[in-house]
Amino acid sequence: MLTEKTNSRFISLRLVKKSDIMRIGYACIAVGVEGANQRACIKKNASSDKLAELIEHNLNALETIIDYNAANKIFLFRISSGLIPFGSSHVNRIPWQKIFKSKFQTIGKKILDYKMRVSMHPGQYTVLNSPNSDTVKNAVEDLRYHSKVLDCLGVPGSHKIIMHIGGIYGDKKNAIKRFIKNYYLLDENIRKRMVVENDDKCYNINEVLTIGKIIKAPVVFDNLHNEINYFDKSKSELYWINKCGKTWNRQKDGIQKIHYSQQDPNNKKGAHSQTIDVEKFSEFYKLLNRKNIDIMLEVKDKNNSAIKCIERINQS
Description:
45% helix; TIM Barrel; globular; alpha/beta; eight-stranded parallel beta sheet
């Protein structure tokens, strides 16, 4: 738990010198960090005043997380899609980009000064390859919202939006064609941030690599998804990681990014573990045999596992 004394350290921590090496991070929630919780509301309570109050709170929480991360040498972070409540919906009509412009700029400057990399990952209902045109329209609006958040922060195109391909809908071939077609409905400033990821049910890493090549988008390799929904068991994780690495253009996309998680032994397939087994992670890290890669941990204890893994590789 952070204290007032701990928080005061953040004021002077404005620039973290960091060479171009591996970053390890976590997603959305900073566990046990005072002032880092985000808030939301239900639709019927989403008045303009309420939304403005929530956005102000959530941006303050994000700033707290960014400072906490820097203080703990965590330079990779996924921003919650709920940062702006109803951000892609007509329910939220307030000009939040203008109202909170100064706050976004302050947070964005810190991200850049800390040499931190942030990303966003729309949820399961943001589906570009749906046969339902309204679903596709909503997906486009949601991706536009995510892009606006990153644009407001003033971070470059190496700060990404991660996307799954979507469903199969009884015909995978046509579902892939729809994804590719609808991808080009997106504004160019959205496409420059887009990366695609293999999932644990529908689209394996080989299929996503094929799609990524067609749309010229980088591919994120997810190790747990690959364990469950594999293409070729004879191919190692390192083989696929290196294949995905070739889809990343260093100049415009930044260094390659991957997702790492471990199976919860007491839950269904694909459920993330409560914490990262550091010994297993250390084996994975040694397998990579390089440091010019970013690893997003998907784990329930979030920042706590990130700190453990960072400490371990710093001992290597």
